[in-house]
Specification:
The protein has 104 residues and is an all-alpha fold. Helices cover 67% and strands 0% of the residues. Helix 3 crosses helix 8.
């Protein structure tokens, strides 16, 4: 569960509402877990990367064997809100999306 300060930080962050809602729900032990946060983050990657860097980020995404390092480099604003102890399940969600629905 997010503490009061973390909850305020995510509510005030310049991030998409869908992401905020999924993280808050996952942190509260709701219906969705960090797997869903990872899955939906992957679906929306194109919207999460600065337009000037998007082509380079997509190229690196398609060539990477290390999705964790890619995320740390290209979407740190997202990774900031994924607790360390939940990152493995977050990345499992991303990997499932890459197998099925990845937009790149």
């Amino acid at each position: 569960m997010l503490n009061k300060k973390s909850l305020e930080n995510i509510k005030n962050a310049a991030l998409p509402t869908w992401f905020k809602a999924l993280v808050i729900n996952a942190s509260d032990g709701g219906k969705n877990s960090y797997f869903e946060v990872g899955y939906h983050t992957c679906i929306h990657l194109g919207n999460l990367i600065n337009g000037d860097n998007q082509d380079k980020a997509i190229e690196e995404f398609n060539e990477t064997d290390d999705i964790k390092a890619w995320c740390s480099k290209w979407i740190p604003q997202i990774m900031r809100f994924i607790p360390l102890e939940r990152r493995e399940i977050f990345f499992e969600g991303m990997e499932k999306c890459i197998e099925k629905d990845c937009p790149f």
